Amino acid sequence: AMLYRVDGWGEPYFAVNSNGNVSVRPYGADTLAHQEIDLLKVVKKASDPKNSGGLGLQLPIVVRFPDVLKNRLESLQSCFDFAIQSQGYEAHYQGVYPVKCNQDKFVVDGIVKFGSGFRFGLEAGSKPELLLAMSSLCNGSPEALLVCNGFKDVEYISLALIARKLHLNTVIVLEQEEELDIVINVSKKLGVRPVIGLRAKLRTKHSGHFGSTSGEKGKFGLTTTQILRVVKKLQQYEMLDCLQLLHFHIGSQIPSTSLLADGVGEAAQVYCELVRLGACMRVIDIGGGLGIDYDGSKSQDSDISVGYSLQEYASAVVEAVRTVCDRKGVKHPVMCSESGRAIVSHHSILVFEAVSASSHDSNQISSHELQCFVERLTGEALADYRNFSAAAIRGEYDTCLLHAENLKQRCVDQFKEGSLEIEHLAAADGLCELVSKAIGVSDPIHTYHVNLSIFTSIPDFWGIGQLFPIIPIHRLDEKPSVRGILSDLTCDSDGKIDKFIGGESSLPLHKLEGPYYMGMFLGGAYEEALGGFHNLFGGPSVVRVSQSDGPHSFAVTRAMPGPSCGDVLRVMQHEPELMFQTLKHRVEEFANGDAGSIMALTNGIACSFNNMPYLAAADSCRLTAAVN
Ligand code: PLP
């Protein structure tokens, strides 16, 4: 556990149990010992074949823990409640969840349900997100906010105004000045009074990867001049009372509370100015940016860590707003945040299997092969070999390796000329590796092949170099004996993971003996929403798991196989049903009327359409299944 820093990034949800397996603590710090869930048991339950009591799902599998999601939400709320109470802040906190972080129905519906007791709402950034937020919030608290961000056209704004008509507490946040005209026109047409927010472009900027969102040249929000023009126009239309919310977003993964306080303080000044200019301001929405400590280092100097706790974040925000408002004599606003990463990251774990490891042992050369090889050598190559042997006898190992490498290069040249056979080229490689190994300079990094697509499941690693904790989920009581990198199933040299938390370029791993399961943790935000279809690998299977009665027992409350080959083909406009028919006719054409063979070939094809694109267990071909 120490080796993988589980205590650092896993607290309070993940630990290692006495069996050496990862255990999940669904209620965080409030979890009792007997409530811990063994992740390996969950994976076995999900993936074992149906005839041996499992659910028969293919790996990779995302394992979701709704209780962890609930705990995160409640922790965030109680940290703000505590900061508000202890600082005598005179308004409440009611957050919204930005659905873009993970739009999964059960994640969004879960958040609305778990947060209905404290008015927790949703943030949408596009029309489909708005539709899902509207329908989900029908089951939420009537006071929950529905914050509408993003680029907006007439249709988006009409939909947001319809949401207001439906008594959903909807706020249209202006990201661009032009959106105001649409809001004014459409709200008149629909006969509904809009609630308007505006997104301010702050001068405060953070320096990490996500900082480019902020600052004067940031992509989003209104400049000071634009804010003043919006106020003036609203005044002209006698709609200044509609302006009620100020929004800003400093960027994701805000590194320190000092930067946070700086940005929130600046925004609070803008808020107070809007009050002075006559707007009916009620809410300050501080955007996202509450960070996650992916490597457990608690460092503010890295994109993948943050130097504060949830409580320190909440306290810094409350203090910054309170100080400015008190100084200006402005009533404390309702506090809203759009924390995404911090809410959903922990609740899901991506589990995949290492299926093979390329090992240097495979290049071992037998003494017979060596003898044949040496007999075949002539001229300079033979001289190299003699020098090599002499150095070996003298115990001069570095010289020995040098001669072996000379020999190998000469063999490569001869092979290219066509004067050396392939068996002898292999023997030359084998000899070099033998020497490297004997003198301890052989490359100790192994490549573990994993049943996964990095492009689909860890897109931020490929796209922006984001690191996540990745560890074996069992055998953690056994010392790993090798170091390895992970290579995925895609035919793409970028499809490998060779950077790990802690600045490591390889991971301590165990020798493969039977199934070897690994987990990628803290990936519940963004990763599932961003993933693509490179090489037509689709998403993983998903299970939802809750703690249940009885010591260490759990229940799988939902199990969804990932998209099949047919499903992913459909994404690229192929028509699996027609493809299947075409192939079936081809089978009939070439099977010479042999009914048994027609059946077997057709079933084989159907089976491939129906199964997921990932490596399947040997017995997973369900011959009874057929397309249609
Ligand atoms: N709100 C806005 C406007 C954003 O752009 C983002 C993400 O970049 C978020 C909220 C969520 O941020 P985070 O995941 O850092 O909480």
Provide a brief overview of the structure.
This protein has 628 residues and is of the alpha/beta class. It is elongated.
Description:
InterPro entries: Ala_racemase/Decarboxylase_C (IPR009006), Arg_decrbxlase (IPR002985), De-COase2_CS (IPR022657), De-COase2_N (IPR022644), De-COase2_pyr-phos_BS (IPR022653), Orn/DAP/Arg_de-COase (IPR000183), PLP-binding_barrel (IPR029066). This is Arginine decarboxylase. Its EC number is 4.1.1.19. Its cofactor is pyridoxal 5'-phosphate; Mg(2+). Pathway: Amine and polyamine biosynthesis; agmatine biosynthesis; agmatine from L-arginine: step 1/1. By secondary structure, the chain is of the alpha/beta class. The chain has three domains: 237 residues, Beta Barrel (Lyase, Ornithine Decarboxylase, Chain A, domain 1), CATH 2.40.37; 281 residues, Alpha-Beta Barrel (TIM Barrel), CATH 3.20.20.10; 66 residues, no CATH class. The protein contains 21 helices and 21 strands. Strands 4, 13, 14, 15, 16, 17, 18, 19, 20 and 21 form a ten-stranded mixed sheet that branches. Strands 5-6-7-8-9-10-11-12 form an eight-stranded parallel sheet, covered by helices on one side. Strand 10, helix 9 and strand 11 form a beta-alpha-beta unit. Helix 3 packs parallel to helix 10. The longest helix has 21 residues. The radius of gyration is 30 Å and the shape is elongated. It starts with 5 loop residues before the first helix and ends in an 18-residue tail after the last helix. The C terminus is likely disordered. Bound molecules: pyridoxal-5'-phosphate. Pyridoxal-5'-phosphate (PLP) binds next to helix 11. The site of pyridoxal-5'-phosphate (PLP) has 15 residues, from helix 11.
